[in-house]
Each structure stands twice: as structure tokens, then as C-alpha cells.
Amino acid sequence: MVREGALPVDGPRAVMKMNHENTGFDCPGCAWPDDTKGLHLDICENGIKHVTWEMTRKRVGRDFFAAHSVTELAGWTDYDLENEGRLTEPMVYDPVSDHYVPISWKDAFALVGSTLRELEDPDQASFYTSGRLGNEATFLYQLMARELGTNNLPDCSNMCHEASGRAMQASLGTGKGTVDLADWETADALFIMGVNAASNAPRMLTALTEAHSRGAQIVHVNPLVEAAARRAIIPHDFKDMATFHATKTSTLDLQVRIGGDMALIRGMAKAILEQSATDPKALDQEFVERHTTGFEEYRAVCEATSWEEIETQSGLSRADVLEAARVYREADRSIISWCLGITQHEHGVDTVREIVNLLLLRGNLGREGAGPSPVRGHSNVQGNRTCGIDHRPGEEFLDRLAEVCGIEPPRAHGLDTVGTIKAMHDGDVKVFVGMGGNFALAAPDTPYTYEALRRCELTVQVSTKLNRSHVVHGRRALILPCLGRTEKDHQRKGIQSTSVEDSMSMVHLSVGMKRPASPHLLSEPAIIAGMARAALPDSATPWEWYVEDYDRIRDTMAKVLDGFEDFNRRVRLPLGFRIKQPARELVFRTPSGKAEFASPPLPDVLPEPGVLALGTMRSHDQWNTTIYSDNDRYRGIENLRTLVFMNRADMRERGIADMAPVDITSTAKDGSRRHLNGYLAVPYDIPRGCAAGYMPEMNVLCALGDYSTQSDQPIMKHVKVTIEPAS
After folding, report:
1. What is the pLDDT of residue 22?
2. Which of 200, 279, 285, 717 fits a disulfide with 344 by CB distance 3.0 to 4.6 angstroms?
3. How far apart are CA 249 and CA 210, in angstroms?
4. pTM for the model
5. Which helix (H) or strand (E) holds 692?
6. Residue ranges for the chain with pLDDT beneath 70
7. Which residues contact 426 (CB under 8 A, 6 or more apart)?
8. Residues 6 or more apart in contact with residue 256 via CB below 8 angstroms
């Protein structure tokens, strides 16, 4: 708070308003659900960083852009770009001077509109969404794109949890988890897979400490033993904070090799099935027979998978796998939760389906304290998908959109993130619009992505702060500054609220608390409406009328979106409302009408001799592509990001000394190679054959063509690399 000038008033007010139902604003960080019992400090360290980073008193206006060319800014670090502060007015790139110069909102919208109208095909435009976009703006955004005639709606989920959605849709008929926060409070066993909760979902630590205190078993599965897998001091427990008293957050830690999670789950399922021969309680036979299909095929696959293969692929001993299976078998109610360590692999969909398989074996679905629980990474990324950001929309949704909104939406599938980058590079997409986020840095294959953006006729970035995507731009470029989540949104009918959906399907309101950073900022719905009216001058959609009062947007959403009926009343209830989850009620919208077992073979995740499997990850002082500092306190790193974590035995084998400079080379599926030179090798407790380092710096190693054929996600967690002493 001190660093960002958020004392003495704004910072403390924000802490008391953040994540408070109906009277506060939703933290723009992670998507962990808000407390349901009236907690006054439902906060975490990273949430406060995120909010104060947005509330900074530093400003980036016309004087700043006049003083610094884009070429100069391109040489700045990403930290330095964002650290300049909040954007204050719309800017347009002037290629003659190589500077951004001021432009009026009217002229900015006119430029967007004329460029979109001049396209030969609406599919020559692509509309990207970051998870920070509220539901109302999300709905308007997808409506604009579809009225223009395209389903090119890539989003950050294409790079994160696409595998989760596709897997659960195939297994259960829903793309979302089925549990809520009350289930976390009653589960007997929690399995936390592929997530560093202490940095990426810190408020989960409250649930973990409470679970440990009541005697629940907590199993962490991760190549690295992260801070959240040890202990935590919860911010709202004043006694523990004052006495530095920590509560354990784990009863078992399993360090799988990178990509070995599916083998672990298969081994647990194999153990359950073997034990069912003598223990009738090991398998919920009645549940399996009544509510599932494909069980016998899955049993056969488990029996055919040898323990030797399970040990080799997981990197764990048979005893470790059996211990995890024991915890699962002895628990009456189990939740399995996971994040990107599970999904960003070639076999991400198969792994999530394997998780669902294991849950089905013991009937851990449709009852309290049990079920699948993916951890979405960004505040409203799940709400984006719910409210229409989907490059593969369903026919039922499109039919209802056409009926209610009076448009004829396109039916052909559009481009996702990987498809958009390739199309921009090939010249097939000429206009890129980014609603929030930092697309240039978040995407894989950094040089290729940069070149793709630079080949566009127009790039439009709707942002709160300066970032890399503003200096890597098309031939023409706009920066359109918007309100932050913490700021009051004044419209004709008064101060407006927006809604967000958390990772457990709760929808609630968010209301800003402070004066906007500049009088020239517009809300995201207003910016979308301005672009839409300019691009669709004859549109019958009442864009301006919608922006006057967001209740009007919600009334339309209630007619289009399944589960949003009576939206305006229900979202104002204490804590909002939960979108109905048919699978939780054992209603499965699958072809068979039942939960479906999947029976894929185990993938071979072992790298070739001399090759390491590298996973990219965040540091603690980081949120997505935003870098707060070069420190990573929980991993013992100070003032360093250009590093690679390695097993000490792997280092000795390669003649690499502690903290010595190394050269890293990745080899893509097509045989092409990418390099990072002079990184420092840090010995770390990580399985042999594995390595790890920070994104976005290491995104350069992930080729655009290295995406999962199951989910189309970039394979950020399983990059094949060689590491040698620096030449």
C-alpha cells in the first residue's frame, strides 16, 4: 500500500470492501469463492497487491507518450511499463513520429468501426477476452462479434482450462466443477493437484487450514513441494497473525514427475478396483450401475495397466500410490481439485477425465463434500465462457441469442487463441481487439506472436495500465483506457454494478468504491457499445440504452443464458446465486444420459535421454503477466527471474554448478528449436528429469504448433528442453 501510494485512505478502505457481498467489489485477482459467513477480511497478500497496483496514483497520459517513442518503450522491462501507472485517455499510434498521440473517444470508435466495415470478411477480425471482464460487458462483447458475423472469440481459457471444460463436458455433460465452498468445508479428503495455491489461489489456504483442523486428509500432488503444501497463517485470524502461529495445510505430499498425474490417478483407481474384490465398500457398485456407463471397459484398462508402468510414468513408488489410494478409499467424501499443472499437457483432457473416473468409482458426485473442483485462475474467466465467449458455441445458445436479440449469429466455429495467432501471422486476421489482459506476453512462442500482431492492420487494446501489448502492435493501434474493478462506474441511470462468476459457479455483484483514475476513462460496456455502434451503424441493438443502466443488459441475459433466469433479483440476494449444476443432481447431459467413464491408454511422459521436461509457472510476486517484483519469496528467490529450477542430480550429470549460467534449448514437435541463454541454474527439490521456470519469460520456448490435439491448449507444462553450461 505504501509503495503504490494507497495510504492512508484508499488502501484500508479497499481491504474492507474487497470481496464483500453486494456492497463491495470483487478482487480482480483469482476466482476463489467469497466467504459465505460474513467474513470481514476475506483477503490475501496477492489480492492486496493486485488492488493497490490498480489504485496507484501514478499516471500515464499524453505527456508521457510525447516523451517516449514506442521503439524506446519496447526496450523497457515489463515491470517498468506497468509501473508507470494508470492510462488516462485514448491514444492512437502515429507511425510517422513513432509515438502514441491523443485521440478523442469519438474518433477512436470511428477508426475501429471503419476498419471493421472495410474487411472483406468478418472472420478477418478476432476478439480476445481476459478473465477480468465482467459478465455484462462479456455479453455485449460476444453480441457485437456475432452481430458482425464471426465466432472468432479467443480467450485466456484457451490457454488455461480448456482441457477441464472439454473433459467434464464429455464425462458429465457440464464444463464446470460441481462443488461449492460448503463442500470444501465438509469433505473428508481433499486432493490438490497441479496448483501452487499459496500464490495462485491464496484464499484456498483458509479452506485447507480449516480442513486440517477438523481432521480431514489433504493430499498435495505437484512436482514441486510448494509453500501451500506445508503450512499457512491466515490473515483474518488476528491471534495467529500476532503470534506467527501457522496451521498445517497437508497430510501427504506426492512429487509426481511432470505429466505423471494421470498415471497416479490410474494407479489409485487400479488399487480401488483390486481392493473391491475383498472389500465391498471400496467400490460404490450401486452408483456405478445406476449412474454411469463404460465401467467394464475402464476396469479392463486399469487391469491391463501394470504397476511397473504406473511407477515409471508417475515417478512415484507403488507404496506412494497405494497410500494415496488408501486415503481416498477411507474417506467417505472426497474432492479432487486441480489447476494448470494438470491441463497444460498434450493429454490434459485424458487426465481430467481420469480424475472424474476415480470420483465415479466411489460415488463422489451428487452429494455434499464430494466432486470435481477445477481452480480457475482469473476472477471472471468462468463467467466469460458462461456468458458467451466461446469460439465453439452450442446451437441451443445461438438459437436463443438469435430469438432474443434479433440477430442471425454465425454458426461456423471460430478461432481460438492458437488459431488467431496463426491467422494473424498468415494475414487472414487483420484486426485484433483485446479486452483486458496482455496478449503479447501471455501467448506462447513469443517472437512468432509478436510478428503476428505486427502484421495486423489494426490492434485495439482495452486496458487499465501500460503493458507489452501496447508496444507490440499492428500497423495502426489504439489504446483505450477503461475503469478498474475498484472504481465507481457512473452512467446515466446512476452508479452501476457488474456481476462476476467465481470458480464454483456463484454469481454476485461487484461495485467500485473510488473515484476513477481519470475523468476520460470509460467502462468496458461503454467502450464495447461505442465500438459496436461505429462498426454496425444500422444495428437495431440498443447499445447506448444498454449502457445507461446495466440492469437492462441483465434482463436480456436472463432471456438468453440458461441459469440466469430472474437475473436482476437473484444477483442482489445476499451472496448472489449459484448457477444450477445438473450433474450435481446426477442429471447428465451426455449422449448416454449417464456419467461416462473414459478408457484412454496412459501417455508416455518420459523425456528422451538427455532431455528434460520443463514446466512454466508464476513466481509469488506475480499475477499472470503482471510482475510486482523480481522476488519469489516462497521459493527463496530474490531479485532474479531469468532462472531455471533443476534437480541437483541432473545438474551434476551436466556439469552445472549451483547458480551457474546455462543455455536452454527447446525442441518442438516439428523439430524446430528455440533458445534462452545465460539463465541461472537453481538447485531445487524437483523430480529427476524435470525442470521449471517462470512465464512469461519462458513462453519463448513453447512453439505455437506445440498445442494439445485434445484441447488445443499450448503445452506450457511439458516443454522438451536440453540444458547445458552456458557457452
Report:
1. 66
2. 717
3. 9
4. 0.95
5. strand 690-694
6. 7, 21-22, 236
7. none
8. 221, 222, 223, 263, 264, 314, 315, 316, 687
